[in-house]
Amino acid sequence: MIGAVSILSWGNLLPTAVLTKTQVAPKPTRSFRGDIQGLRTVAIVAVFLYHLDLPFIPGGFVGVDVFFVISGYLITGLLLKQLMADGRISLGEFYARRAKRLLPAATVVLIATAVLTTAFVPVTRWASIGWDIIASAFYVQNWRLAADSVDYLTSDAAPSPLQHFWSLGVEEQFYLLWPLLLIGAGWLLTRRQVGHTRRINGTHLVRVLLVALSLVLVPSLIWSALYTASAPGPAYFASTTRFWQLAVGALLAVTVSYLEKIPNHIAVIVGWLGMAGIVGAALSIDSSVPYPGVAALLPTLASAAVIAAGVRHQRSGAESILGRKPMLFIGNISYSLYLWHWPLIVVAGAVFGDLSTGVKVALIGMSVALAYLTYRFIEQPVNKMPALEGQPARGLQVGLALTIVGCMIGGGVVQTVRADEGRAEAEAYNATLPKVSISRAPQQPVLVGAMTLPESPRDNAPPMDTVAGAKTPAPIAAGKDFPDCVSARVDETDIRECAYGKRDSSKHVALVGDSHAKQWIPALEAIANTEGWRLTAYIHDACPFATGNLVRSGAPYTACMVWNERMQEVLSEDNELVMVVTSNYTKSAGIAGASNEVDAMSSAFQASWGSITNKGVPVAVIRDTPAPGQNIPDCVAANTSDLGQCAVPRRVASDDKGLAQMDAARAVDGVTAIDLNDFICPADLCAPVIGNVLVYRDSDHLTATYARSLTDRLAQPLKAALPAA
């Protein structure tokens, strides 16, 4: 138990905790924890093997949870150790140590990632990676990823080589809070005392620290369960859903004196049970389980069990394995290994595509070698540098300088592509097709995109372009070639409207659906302008226009279900509505407990669309479009001399798309099915470029330019579905 403490003196604008010599608490019996080093090895190996996409460890991502518990335990222990040894807690010294420990190796990896990106990664991804470098340098990459996971348009983007920095961001954000709570606990206990030396009872201090921990742990755990159930994507990266895991580790450090009293035979059992829990979690939890949420309790508590059991050394405990030399070696370099392994995997994927066994083995060797070199020649020398010993201000200055370096590197990558991107965007806008029906244009236009295809493209498909010439949009700008309409995000229930066409028209056409409905706005806008319709787009990302018990990522899709209810109310109150157009991505959502997903979604569509047609309003459903499954602009940018590398078999891209839509359209009177997929993938191989127009802006969304080239093909069946005036 921590002894009686005299705490809280404010000097040099940094709060400190003061401990008198007669009140120094006993130190833990063990200064070096070989079992923790070995536990770090378990964590990094699990993460590494998971990132190599090895099928036998689907839950290897729980290694990050192990790291969180270890970090909470060790850092809190260091803070308490400083309190016991020096009689104070100095924020300046604490943050200087963190900067000295983390930033040198991290900065080297950020610089190396920038170099590897510009050398091997398609230019289409440079700007995004540049921003990732900046976010990682400031340790806020987790919030950038959380925002991206909510943004459905980025959900299929290639992984960032710096995605793994999210966990480092969570840790550092926790350590902005926790030392302040430690100091606040001391102030709370001494606020009514006077004099230079303020005394508190050690037992009271432990109690206050437990209360402080509970204020972090309990709300964070509850929020983790709730947020994961409703929005598992952003919940995975959010600090607020992860703080409780670090707090569990901190709890162990605060109660270490009690843990030392655990009988050895009990500690041995607890330690082995903890190891079994970690391994079991890594082997059994997979991506279908909403995470972190309640599922994260298993690896978190299992890690805590191993650490708690190892407070006292047992020859037959888990340390008998964790403390072996190979485990200690990997544990020592685990931080650098964590930093290096993921950028190498991502860059290798950009170079080789699917990674062979040989490439994976080589990646393991390269990662371990670079990690050792970084540990030996960067981590250790900086940590032992005499110029930084006992100089917190200097350490903070070095940390700030390294952060600025990371920022400048990221900014440089962004600026490298900005000029080219601007020129490419101008090219795309200048080449955009007229925003009126092509058939009514006063002069014969140049045929581009789908306009170059014959009436029956499957019977007479033109040869695929194999060498990239002038393309619209250019690959570097394709990601921005989408309709200017703000969608409701996956976790929102608000109805957002985007207005097009003749705004005062009494003929109102509503476009309802997700981003695969949104991709048709360029063509629908052109039709609305020509026909004199008022067009309103109601778009909710990843949310089909369907009535049923919808689920997404294994969790109830409450936001989408509420949005659908509100959408039905909006449409039922619209007296000028003459037609509803809808479409959706086949995999955006599913039905809970469905044994046959196509039949279940068909029933959900029928219920939704039937409520519209029952009021005499026709529904036109545009069949879901082919999805290549790879980022087409990235592929085209990397294969300008052989576009055939970017072609995808039609049976893979198209055959399973829109089956439930077509089935529901046949079952409901007043619903017209529109299938334009032959004009998107006219041959047995879906071409990335048709008529000098890039077909896709990512792995499944049409570019606005190509969608606009389908205007006349869409106009014919739409006008036929509209009842005569």
Structural account:
By secondary structure, this protein is of the alpha/beta class. It folds into two domains: 9-416, no CATH class; 445-718, SGNH hydrolase (Rossmann fold, 3-Layer(aba) Sandwich), CATH 3.40.50. Helix content is 54%, strand content 7%. The strands form five sheets. The chain has a six-stranded mixed beta sheet with strand order 3-5-4-8-10-12, with helices on both faces. A three-stranded antiparallel beta sheet has the order 7-6-9. A hairpin with a 2-residue loop joins strand 1 (9-11) and strand 2 (14-16).
SSE order and pairing:
Elements: E1 9-11, E2 14-16, H1 34-51, H2 63-86, H3 91-120, H4 126-137, H5 141-150, H6 165-190, H7 202-230, H8 232-237, H9 243-254, H10 256-259, H11 264-284, H12 297-309, H13 319-322, H14 325-332, H15 334-352, H16 357-383, H17 392-430, H18 475-478, E3 498-501, E4 508-513, H19 515-518, H20 521-531, E5 534-539, E6 550-552, E7 555-556, H21 558-572, E8 577-583, E9 590-591, H22 597-613, E10 619-622, H23 632-638, E11 648-649, H24 650-653, H25 659-667, E12 671-674, E13 685-686, E14 689-690, E15 693-694, H26 704-708, H27 711-721
Parallel strand pairs: 4-5, 4-8, 8-10, 10-12
Antiparallel strand pairs: 1-2, 3-5, 6-7, 6-9, 11-13, 14-15
Helix pairs in contact: 1-2, 1-14, 1-15, 2-6, 2-9, 2-12, 3-4, 3-15, 3-16, 3-17, 4-17, 5-6, 6-7, 7-9, 9-12, 11-12, 15-16, 20-27, 22-25
